Amino acid sequence: MRADRLLSILLLLQVHRRVTARELAKRLEVSERTILRDMEALSGAGVPVVAERGAGGGWSLLDEYQTKLTGLSAAEIQSLFLARPARLMADLGLTREAEAAFIKLEASLPAGTRQRAEFARQRILIDTRGWRDPAESIACLPVLLDALWRERRVRFSYRRVLGEPSERMGDPLGLVAKGNTWYLIAQVERETKTYRVSRISDAAILEQPSARPVEFDLAGYWERSATEFREKLPRYYATFLASPSVVRWVRYRGWRLEEEAPEGDRVRVRLRFDVEEEAIQFALSFGGDVEAVEPHELRALIRP
């Protein structure tokens, strides 16, 4: 609705003081032309919005102007009360603070709205842990978090998979939790890189201030990085004729089942592996209950 969008624009300007039409359009998922029309509507309603041209320009509010129109919808309030992964708050050392903040938020709500928020909280719980996730060491997380808050450079040792630890020095840009696994995003040797916190040791905060690229956006970087990572993952597809008991085992173990279709007294399944060796191991582990169909190279390797 347009009224909701106008209020969102007003609050964004109040928080960020200056925002470009392009940024507003991206944030609110509309065109820049729509944003310009919205600005005309705000101006016509007496809101002192100002356009500044040139580098570093954008839309802003006149100094000292503030709105008290900060009412939250029922759905917005529910989303705030749901977005509290307890494990991640504990990792950051913010369990008590998060609980105190939500108690204050709850106390500030009207009685009817407070009941709806509690209704949602008692019915939906977000748990980021997987059933088989191994516990990872995040002993360095408090140091990295402190460096982020203080905007200081860090020095740490990093161990790659099957590699020896090596020393790094850089500017921390952010921390990201993927499931219950933490990652440090840092600029090291003028490149923005991702480091798994569980592989970091001997982290120390330096006295030099950290340098943060002006245009760096943590969420945008992570989305691009995650997409590139997924695209580079190795993939090896293989098709088998398997007995029903094997198919049940495949589902239980969580192998990447792409397709399945009955074929006589067996089931034709197409699985995704990382490498060919993994597909060979799968086929040989079930003996006569599995017959390799494709690719032909795999079939030749498995057949006696």
Q: How does this structure look, described?
A:
The protein is of the alpha+beta class. The chain folds into four domains: 60 residues, Orthogonal Bundle (Arc Repressor Mutant, subunit A); 48 residues, no CATH class; 92 residues, SH3 type barrels (Roll); 67 residues, Alpha-Beta Plaits (2-Layer Sandwich). Helix content is 42%, strand content 27%. It contains twelve helices and twelve strands. The strands form three sheets. Strands 7-6-5-4-8 form a five-stranded antiparallel sheet, covered by helices on one side. A hairpin with a 7-residue loop joins β4 and β5. α4 packs across α7. The model has no long low-confidence stretch (mean pLDDT 83).
Topology:
Blueprint: H1 2-16, E1 18-19, H2 21-28, H3 32-44, E2 49-52, E3 58-61, H4 74-82, H5 86-91, H6 95-108, H7 111-121, H8 141-150, E4 152-158, E5 166-178, E6 181-188, E7 191-196, E8 200-209, H9 218-232, E9 236-242, H10 244-253, E10 256-263, E11 266-273, H11 276-285, E12 290-294, H12 296-302
Antiparallel strand pairs: 1-3, 2-3, 4-5, 4-8, 5-6, 6-7, 9-11, 9-12, 10-11
